Amino acid sequence: MRKLKNSELNRLSIEEFKSISKLPIVIVLDNIRSMNNIGSAFRTADAFCVESIYLCGITATPPHREIQKTALGATDSVNWKYFNSTLEAVQQLRIEGYTLFSIEQAEGSIPLPQFVPNHKKIAYIFGNEINGVDELVMNMVDGCIEIPQYGTKHSLNVSVSIGIVIWDHLLKQQPLNY
């Protein structure tokens, strides 16, 4: 078996990427502290052709060297917006017709394997590394999805959670054909 060379990967240019169809998903980052997590969110959004990322509250914004370390240029390809608060972002998404799901451990949450993303436009809200999704935001969502965990920590890194949820969504939906 031979690893593919970069020239064999059929990578899109930024202009080509911006012109293709995207998954109707917005990743909402609710007061994320780690710029590595932010950069990873951009890279995941690029990899799976996510529509946009909303950066909220204390979440840092591009351009920033620490974000770039993990984004590897995805801040140039993925659309993003900044909001002073996650509540403001959630209100805007509601106006735009998105169904809102927090990714959190909560009463009444839907285990990810049982979640069916049958909504036209979905926003997934990922919370702060220490406090999770803000309680006021939790009161505004349409539902809560929980990633089942079986070890002692019951805690995943934000960037890992984003990858799991977006990949799961992609597997359950008709994949984009490029």
Describe the structure.
The relative contact order is 0.19. Helix 2 packs parallel to helix 3. The chain has one domain: 3-Layer(aba) Sandwich (Alpha/beta knot). It has 178 residues and is α/β, with parallel strands linked by helices. Helix 2 links the parallel strand 1 and strand 2. Helix content is 33%, strand content 20%. Strands 3-2-1-6-4-7-5 form a 7-stranded parallel beta sheet, sandwiched between helices. The mean pLDDT is 95.
CATH architecture: 3-Layer(aba) Sandwich
- Ends: how far apart? 25 Å
Helix amount: 25-40%
The CATH homologous superfamily corresponds to SPOUT methyltransferase, trefoil knot domain
CATH class: Alpha Beta
In percent, how much strand structure appears in the residues?
15-25%
Which sequence of SSEs, written as H and E, runs from N to C?
A: HEHEHHEHEEEHEH
- Helix count, per DSSP? 7
Summarize the structure.
By secondary structure, the protein is of the alpha/beta class. It has helices spanning 14-19, 35-47, 65-71, 74-77, 86-95, 135-138, 158-172, and strands at residues 23-30, 50-56, 79-83, 99-103, 110-111, 122-126, 143-146.
Please supply descriptive tags for the structure shown above:
178 residues, alpha/beta, Alpha/beta knot, seven-stranded parallel sheet, 7 helices, 7 strands, globular
Task: Set down the secondary structure blueprint.
Layout: H1 14-19, E1 23-30, H2 35-47, E2 50-56, H3 65-71, H4 74-77, E3 79-83, H5 86-95, E4 99-103, E5 110-111, E6 122-126, H6 135-138, E7 143-146, H7 158-172
Parallel strand pairs: 1-2, 1-6, 2-3, 4-6, 4-7, 5-7
Helix pairs in contact: 2-3, 2-7
